[in-house]
Every structure is written in structure tokens, then in C-alpha cells.
Design goal:
Blueprint (H helix, E strand, L loop, with lengths): L6 H22 L6 E9 L2 E6 L4 E6 L11 E6 L5 E6 L5 E3 L8 E4 L3 E6 L9 H11 L3 E6 L11 H10 L4 E3 L8 H8 L3 E5 L6 H8 L3 H12 L10 E4 L5 E4 L1 H4 L8 H7 L24 H7 L5 H11 L1
Parallel strand pairs: 3-5, 8-9, 8-11, 9-10, 11-13
Antiparallel strand pairs: 1-2, 1-4, 2-3, 4-5, 6-7, 12-13
Helix pairs in contact: 2-8
Bound molecules: guanosine-5'-diphosphate, magnesium ion and zinc ion.
């Protein structure tokens, strides 16, 4: 038997009907064919999308597709207003979250490469490069070590030792100077097939490096803000840039800072490539790799397979 609705219930039903109506209207006004796009920047319930033709469109995000970030490959359709609606997101190759352990909201998607910048001044604190490399390994990203300010090399006396250590592990190392341009051509070549994020401690030259790679970045930001009316500095969200020489850089203060979060001992061991194949080789399952007999990690240190400084960092991350 139909029951009479209270005022409040009637209002609720009406508002629900209106909401459904709104969704329907949006659907009905989709006039274009579905097409591929690349998400350049997220802005609240909207996103800047680049079409396959390189056109910039402001797209609306549907309620059920709110989790998108710069770097996402999407399907979108134009609507009657000249903007667009994102109707699907492609599966991600990788996702960069607030912490490397995977907690916190996604910041960027489909990154392939971590550009780890360090410098003679400020010199890297012990374990810092190992932290970035650990992050790259866990996210399955290519890691490129970039020693910036190589015009100041005399200020980092043990630099060759460090360079040799990481080179021996198989990581590419480039020496550059954003001041005199040394090494920049080689860096551009390495980055031209990658979607990169630049990390490194404050003062090593990340902003200088990004500016050198994107000589007209301010102009680009201006163009985007004209199309989208978001304004120039209204967002700190990650933004994807085309590199003029090929490839992409995703940049924002958020992605430049690496926070590992809480890692398991297994994850730490996976992130140190020279002892990854030693997982499960220690006598004790819960080996702390410090004083136990038959420890595969300590054996590796003793026979020179693992560098002692790397071992010290490893123990730090195990804590
Ligand atoms: N000598 C020298 N100084 C540099 C170089 N690259 C950047 N700097 C300087 O280092 C300082 C910090 O650079 P910045 O790009 O702001 O570093 P960020 O904090 O990592 O973004 C600035 O004073 C830059 O001018 C370089 O290749 N050589
Ligand atoms: Mg900076
Ligand atoms: Zn052990």
C-alpha cells in the first residue's frame, strides 16, 4: 500500500530525481566520438586533457571517475558546451602515490623514470641516494642519477668513489651543469622516451634543471590557463609537460618529495638490487642481517658484492 511521503521525504526524492536528470542531460549532450586523450593536469572536478591532435580541452570528471591524475590516459568525448567529459581511464603502467609504500592519494600516473638529482653542494646526506634508488626499484621505474653543478666538483672530494659505486650497480650517471649547459644534451637524449619525475634534496638544482629542459614553461602555463580559465597559480597539482626534445616531465612540489612510508624488510631487500637475489637465503627467516650466523647479506658485504655504505643504508631502512 502506498504510504504518503513526509515533506522531507518528498524533498529528498525530488532532489534525487533532479540529480539523475543532471547526469542524463550531461550524457545526452555528448556530441563527439569517444577519443584518446592524455591528462595534463587535474583541477578539482575538472581536468585539462590533451587530445591525440595536441588540442587542449577542459574536461569534466564524472562522479565515479574521480581518481584521475596527471599522466593518465583517458577516453573523452566533446559535449555541447565545447568542453568534454572523460568517460573512461586506461589501466595504469605505474602510479606515484604520496608515499612509496602506496598509501595516500595518487599524485601522477604512468611515470617510467625517476631523475635523481644530487650536487657537490649541498652534498647528499648519507643514505639519501639509496633512498631514492629504493623508491625507484619499488615503483619499478628506471633510475637516472644526475650530478648537477659539476662546475663545483672540487667541493665534493669523494665524488669519484660515489660515482663508481652506483655505476658498478648498473645505474646510469650523468654529470651536468645547468649553469654552463654541460651534459644537458645527453640528458635530453636519455629523457626523450620517458615520462619522468625529478627528485632530490632542496638546493641541488631541480627547478633550474626543469627550467633548462622547458625553456618556455611559463608560456605553456599561460596558454593552459587561457584555455581553462583555472588561473596561473591556483593549483599545486602535478602537471605534465612535453619536453621539446621528446618525452614528458611530470612536475609539482608533491612529486618532487619522496616519502617512503612504512616498508616491510622484504620490500627493503627488493629495493637494493645487489641483494635482491639473496631474499630467503639467510639461515633465519627473520634475520636482522646484523649478527646472525649464515647471513647471506653480511656474506655479500664481506665478499665485496655489497658496498659497506650501501649496507649501512640498508640497515637504516630496515629499522
Ligand atoms: N654552480 C651551479 N649552481 C647551480 C647549478 N644549478 C643550479 N644552481 C644554483 O643552485 C641553487 C638552487 O637551485 P634550485 O634550482 O632552486 O634548486 P632546487 O631547490 O632543487 O629546486 C640556485 O642558486 C641555482 O642558481 C649549477 O649547475 N651550477
Ligand atoms: Mg625548487
Ligand atoms: Zn641476514
Amino acid at each position: 500500500m502506498a504510504r504518503k511521503l513526509t515533506h522531507q521525504q518528498q524533498r529528498r526524492v525530488k532532489s534525487l530525481q533532479e540529480k539523475r536528470q543532471q547526469v542524463l542531460t550531461t550524457d545526452e549532450t555528448l556530441i563527439g566520438q569517444p577519443q584518446n586523450g592524455l591528462l595534463i593536469m587535474r583541477h578539482g572536478r575538472n581536468a585539462v586533457v590533451e587530445s591525440a591532435d595536441g588540442e587542449i580541452i577542459t574536461c569534466h570528471l564524472r562522479q565515479n571517475l574521480q581518481n584521475m591524475v596527471a599522466g593518465d590516459r583517458v577516453i573523452w568525448q566533446t559535449d555541447a558546451s565545447g568542453g568534454g567529459v572523460i568517460t573512461a581511464v586506461m589501466p595504469r603502467q605505474s602510479v606515484f602515490t604520496k608515499t612509496i609504500s602506496g598509501e595516500g592519494k595518487p599524485l601522477a600516473a604512468n611515470i617510467s623514470c625517476l631523475v635523481i638529482v644530487f650536487a657537490p653542494e649541498p652534498a647528499p646526506t648519507p643514505g639519501l641516494l639509496d633512498k631514492y634508488l629504493l623508491a625507484a626499484e619499488l615503483l619499478k621505474l628506471k633510475a637516472i642519477l644526475v650530478l648537477n653543478k659539476c662546475d663545483l666538483m672540487a667541493k665534493l672530494p669523494n665524488i669519484n668513489e660515489q660515482l663508481n659505486l652506483y655505476q658498478a650497480l648498473g645505474y646510469p650517471i650523468l654529470q651536468i651543469s645547468t649553469v654552463n649547459g654541460y651534459g644537458m644534451a645527453e640528458l635530453k637524449t636519455i629523457l626523450q622516451h620517458e615520462t619522468s619525475v625529478v627528485v632530490g634534496q632542496s638546493g641541488v638544482g631541480k627547478s633550474s634543471l626543469i627550467n633548462a629542459l622547458l625553456p618556455d614553461s611559463d608560456v605553456r602555463v599561460g596558454e593552459i590557463s587561457e584555455v581553462t580559465r583555472f588561473g596561473k597559480h591556483t593549483t599545486s597539482n602535478a602537471r605534465l609537460y612535453h619536453l621539446p626534445s621528446g618525452g614528458y616531465i611530470i612536475d609539482s612540489p608533491g612529486v618532487r618529495d619522496i616519502d617512503l612510508g612504512v616498508l616491510t624488510p622484504m620490500q627493503v631487500q627488493q629495493g637494493f638490487i645487489e641483494c635482491r637475489d639473496l631474499i630467503g637465503q639467510c639461515k633465519f627467516r627473520d634475520c636482522s642481517h646484523q649478527h646472525e650466523p649464515d647471513c647471506a647479506v653480511r656474506d655479500a658485504v664481506e665478499c665485496g658484492k655489497m658496498d659497506n655504505k650501501r649496507y649501512q643504508s640498508f640497515l637504516e631502512f630496515m629499522k
